[in-house]
Amino acid sequence: MEILIATLVFIGAFFTLVGSIGLVKLPDFFTRLHGPTKATTLGVGALLIASSLYFSSQHEGLSLHEILITLFLFITAPISAHIMAKSALHIKKNEEKKERLDA
Amino acid sequence: MKKFFPHPLLSLALLVAWLLLNNTLSFGHLLLGAFLGLIIPYMSASFWPEHICIKKPFVFLRFIAILLYDIVVANITVALQVLGENKNLHPSFITYPLSIQNQLGISVLASTISLTPGTVSCDLSVDQSTLLIHALSAQDKEKVIAHIHQRYEKPLMEVFVQC
Amino acid sequence: MLAFILPLAFTMVTIALLLNLYRLILGPSVSDRILALDTLYINAIALFIMLSLYLENSLYFESALLIAVMGFVSTLALSKYLLRGDIIE
To answer: What's the ipTM?
Structure first.
């Protein structure tokens, strides 16, 4: 059981790190957007499953309220990614319009 | 009945969320959760104009299982792409023609596309006929469109129908 | 096993937070900075969960949940501000 939990913690931390490496390394905003969606889905997901397993095995009774955070993140992460992409597109369009007016 | 109990699914979701939040199954919290599940949809009814009904719940459950499997697989591929060299990536915008009509169906499809790493949905056109997708590495655009249509949009079209 | 993995995981998430900070400070555009803040709060949630595992105390979930809610709303508000020049119309 402990090995399973440790593996899940490691997977979670690894994907969180990869998401942030992507945030720094990738060339432009839209490719960088892929990093955080990964960090949330698998990184935090695996960590929350690990802690759910840990607290269920420690104390009597299931510990399920971690699922609430997972569920919340799974619902909100695409929405925030969508609105950030939308605002970035909006800014890009405005700048292009400005350049055309200046030229 | 309809007036006092407008959204049964929302009520159920609120009850489950309340029980998860308190991490118990005691009778008192069950009662309080049921009360909240009744009163919140009633008070916020004007925010939810359309009725939601889910047909074929088993297709929806299968869809979620496929989605979870795809999230894990796609995460590993994208992690390798991120750690690889930048010049091996082929980032591109794809215009995806939507065939699903239902509002909730479109938003679930857009969330699905963002949740599977490698693709992020960016913008929905005003007439709700196309979705702008950004792909991290797509050499064959037609293949990505066909993949999304076959794997995600078809089951969602069966689940979310107008009612 | 867990006693060995947890400090390693703490180090990895801390490096991730520092990388986010780099993007937050240097990020060429405003959208990049919002994205860095978004990633920062998600990584903070990861750190809180690991802290609760380390201290064997499940009280930290409430704070993780609050960070999740507040972070989502602030990302939404910042993006909305960029999109419209106003948050509440």
So the answer is: 0.84
